[in-house]
Amino acid sequence: MVGLNNIKETGFVNVTIQSLMRVTPLRNFFLIPENYADSKSVLVHRFGELTRKIWHARNFKGQVSPHEFLQAVMKASKKRFRIV
Description:
Strand content: under 5%
Distance between the termini: 27 Å
Strand order of the largest sheet: 1-2
Number of domains: 1
Largest sheet: 2 strands, parallel
């Protein structure tokens, strides 16, 4: 099991991300970059990167940083959702 770094009290986001990572069809879709290669959404690509980091078989760390994904969420939401 891989955890997520808590960036400025983002525990609620980490729980949501971890829950989404347990939805097998969603996880499997994002593990293969070719599935969403045609998407122009940075948010989609960052979520895919985060999914692959969390589920990487050779990840020797106990945690992964969701920083890039959180930045993409801020930008896509026009800062309605932001790290404070």
